[in-house]
Design goal:
With 275 residues, this protein is α/β, with parallel strands linked by helices. The chain has helices at 16-27, 39-51, 66-80, 105-133, 155-174, 212-222, 236-251, and strands at residues 7-11, 31-36, 56-60, 85-88, 137-142, 180-186, 189-191, 209-211, 229-231. Strand 5, helix 5 and strand 6 (180-186) form a beta-alpha-beta unit. Helix 1 (16-27) crosses helix 6.
């Protein structure tokens, strides 16, 4: 780790990866703003970390509301003066195991609101302030292996994670030459309340499971570095290879069959000139 953060904002912090990130920061003496739409949960967890000596502020916020996100950014910078790390981590699983045409549209929209649009709003609220501070900072977008690997019955979740991967990649390009780094966290199966008891749809799950604490450790070690893709599970390389091998098979077009009519080659033209 090259960045020694003093302050961090973690969204989706009441449980799972967000809680593990908050705890990892707190143990290192980092002041943390923990935010979640589940107000009772985030305040309870924040109190537990504060009792262990952490400098914790809990905020109940619906990050799909642009005004709420702006208030969160205002509060974080007012509270700490500067923010070193923003973990754009809030997320929901949504409907799984259902083919696309059976998923209610309102459920699709809810998943996109949290997994994609909330991340967009957080980035828009925090990034300009991070740039203006002129200090090294790091933005972590929590996507998923589902940003690459898509199985049956996972359209809503996987599509939202593909969208968030694109946002992170664009931000990386936008922030080139600034002191603000961007990473996209792409965990496979993580042992969190969100997936406990869930049977992964066909082709969507990997063969390994890691703890939320392991994911938090991966993020901690990446802070301040140029590591963009953060993969937590040991089977990530194999799963990615299978996906990109499938893409590669479709890149090279087969040679035309003899009966196919080819476009005629362009004929050379000459222009007569008078002498």
């Amino acid at each position: 780790m090259q960045l020694r953060p003093r302050t961090a904002v973690v969204t989706g912090a009441a449980s799972g990866i967000g809680l593990a990130l908050s705890a990892r920061f707190a143990r290192a003496g980092v002041g943390v703003v923990m935010t979640d739409v589940e107000g009772d949960g985030v305040h309870r967890r924040a109190a537990e970390l504060a009792a262990q000596g952490g400098e914790i502020t809990a905020v109940t916020a619906d990050l799909t509301d642009p005004d709420a996100v702006e208030r969160l950014a205002d509060m974080a910078f007012d509270r700490f003066g500067d923010v070193d790390v923003v973990c754009n981590n809030a997320g929901v699983l949504g409907p799984v195991g259902q083919p696309l045409w059976t998923v209610p549209l309102e459920e699709m929209r809810r998943v996109f609101d949290v997994n994609h649009w909330a991340h967009v709003l957080v980035a828009r609220a925090f990034v300009p302030r991070l740039i203006d501070s002129g200090r090294p900072a790091h933005l972590i977008h929590t996507a998923s292996m589902s940003a690459f690997v898509v199985g049956a019955g996972s359209a809503a979740y996987a599509a939202s994670k593909h969208a968030d991967l694109a946002v992170a990649r664009s931000l990386r390009a936008d922030l080139q030459g600034t002191p603000v780094r961007v990473s996209v966290l792409c965990p496979g199966r993580v042992d969190t309340p969100m997936v406990q008891g869930l049977q992964a749809p066909r082709g969507a799950g990997g063969d390994t499971t890691v703890s939320a604490e392991e994911v938090a450790g991966l993020v901690w070690e990446a802070l301040g570095t140029d590591r963009f893709y953060l993969f937590s599970n040991s089977d990530a390389a194999l799963r990615l290879r299978d996906q990109f091998d499938d893409v590669r098979r479709h890149v090279s077009l087969p040679p035309p069959s003899p009966e196919e009519e080819l476009w005629p080659a362009p004929k050379a033209t000459t222009v007569a000139t008078k002498h």
